Amino acid sequence: MTEFEHLVQLSGITKTFIDGGQQHKVLDTLDLIIPKGQTIALTGASGSGKSTLLNLIAGFERPDSVADSSSTSNHHQSSGTLTLLDQDTTHWQDKQWSRFRQESLGVVFQQFNLLTPLNVNDNIAFPLRLNGQDWNPWCDHLADALGLTELLNRHVESLSGGQQQRVAIARALAHKPPLILADEPTGNLDQTASLEVMQLLCELAAEHQTSILMVTHSLECANFMQRRWHLNKGKINE
Ligand SMILES: Nc1ncnc2c1ncn2[C@@H]1O[C@H](COP(=O)(O)OP(=O)(O)OP(=O)(O)O)[C@@H](O)[C@H]1O
C-alpha cells in the first residue's frame, strides 16, 4: 500500500437526521484527523453521535449535502470533506467504498454482521480471501488469543453473544487493516476477555501502525488507547 499522510481527515462535516419532522444535527461542522498508528477512545453520552461518526468514516452514512450556491443548476455538494488515505471521498461510488472497506478497514460494530451460513473459521478468513490471501499464522494467533481455537468448526449462529463478538473482532483484525473502527467491541465480554481484546488491539497497533477509533463506555478500556475524544453537541473535545 502506498504511504499516506492522514489516514482519516474530516473537515467541516455535518450530519443531520430528520425525525418526526424535526431536524436533529448530530455532527456539527466537525473537524478531526486520525494519523497513522494512533489509537483513540471515543466517549460521549448515549445519542451523542458516536456510531454515526463511525458509520460516516466507514461509508455506511453520508454527510449532509448542501445546495451548491456557485451553480445555477440543482447541484448539491457535501457539507464538508471526508478524506481517507489522502483521497477525497466526496465523489466515491460504491465500488470505491467497497474497495476501501475490503483493503483498509476492519469494523466491529454493535451488530456483529457475521456471515451466518459460515463457520467461525470461514468468517475469520473472509476478509483475507477477499484480498486473495488465506488462513495464516496470524489467524492462529488471533483464534488462540480470543479463545476461538476450539470453536473454529462451529457455525456462528450456534455461538453465544460473547463468542460471536470475539469472532467479529478476529475477522476485523485478520487482514491487518490500517484502520479499525470498533463500537463497544467488548460490550458482551467479561473483564478478563475484555482485557485480552484490548491487549490484542494494542499489539496490532504497535506492530503494524494500525489506527483505532474505539467507542467505549469503559474507562479501563479507554485507558488502553493513546488519546481520548469526547463527542458532545456535534463536536469533539480532547
Ligand atoms: N438513521 C437514523 N435516522 C434518524 N435518526 C438517527 C439515525 N441514526 C441515528 N439517529 C439519531 O442520531 C443520534 C445519534 O445516534 P448515534 O447512534 O450515533 O448515537 P451514539 O452516541 O452512538 O449512541 P449510543 O451510545 O446510545 O449507541 C440519536 O439521536 C439517534 O436517534
From TrEMBL:
Domain ABC transporter: 8-238
Pfam families: ABC_tran (PF00005)
GO cellular component, one term: plasma membrane
Keywords carried by this UniProt record: ATP-binding, Nucleotide-binding, Transport
CDD domains in the cross-refs: ABC_MJ0796_LolCDE_FtsE (cd03255)
Gene3D superfamilies cross-referenced by the UniProt entry: P-loop containing nucleotide triphosphate hydrolases
Signal peptide positions on this chain: none
GO molecular function: ATP binding; ATP hydrolysis activity; transmembrane transporter activity
PROSITE patterns linked: ABC_TRANSPORTER_1, ABC_TRANSPORTER_2
Ranges annotated as spanning the membrane: none
InterPro entries per UniProt: AAA+_ATPase, ABC_transporter-like_ATP-bd, ABC_transporter-like_CS, ABC_transpr_LolD-like, MacB-like_ATP-bd, P-loop_NTPase
Protein name from the UniProt record: ABC transporter ATP-binding protein
Organism: Shewanella hanedai
